[in-house]
Amino acid sequence: MHPKLYDILRSMICPFDRIIQSIPERDGELLDIGSGYGTFCFILSKKRPGMKIIGVEMDKKRVNIANSRIIDSQNLEFICDDILNLSTSKRFDVITCVDLIHHIPMEDHLFVFRKINELLKDNGLLIVKDMDDKPFYKYLWNCMHDLLMARRMTTYYIPKRDMVKILGGNGFVIEYAKDIPNFLYAHYLVVCKRSVLKIK
Ligand SMILES: C[S@@+](CC[C@H](N)C(=O)[O-])C[C@H]1O[C@@H](n2cnc3c(N)ncnc32)[C@H](O)[C@@H]1O
Asked: Which CATH superfamily is domain 3-194 in?
């Protein structure tokens, strides 16, 4: 599919504007994990021109397409890596996970949240946009969507109420969690701040 067409379809499905509203209007560095073809990062770079945006994505083809679309002076960079293996001394002001978590196996979720905690500056912001498992028809619809788009039968949804508990128990202070209304997709957004992680 042509990247521009993908951007249009993806923007019709995913409420990027609502996610961007939760990102402060200031300079700083933002890491977008699971950046795909870069659709979200390209939209964000126009709305937050003072921010340096880095997308990390494990699929090399997607990273190459995203990088080939960068215009010279843009505040963007895409790197190919698996978040489970990413090694960097950089610390970010904001980290976004847009429809990433339900693609990561359940057994790796805690590791990923702890890694995100390490990658954030003190008081850094984590923004998770994911899908709820209720109502059932929306859940079913999203499973079908993932089957068609990602060609995967297995996805690992964390309902909003559990996401809030998991993040709250793993080094984050919840600012707010809310549903984003849509007639087909059960979108939700959780915005939280890094706090000191106490490993039990
Ligand atoms: C549903 S797509 C969302 C893409 C993009 N965030 C967007 O909203 O358009 C999920 C992306 O996460 C990537 N992904 C899944 N697991 C990953 C991992 N462990 N590390 C990095 N990227 C990952 C997938 O390859 C895929 O491109």
From this structure: Vaccinia Virus protein VP39 (3.40.50.150)
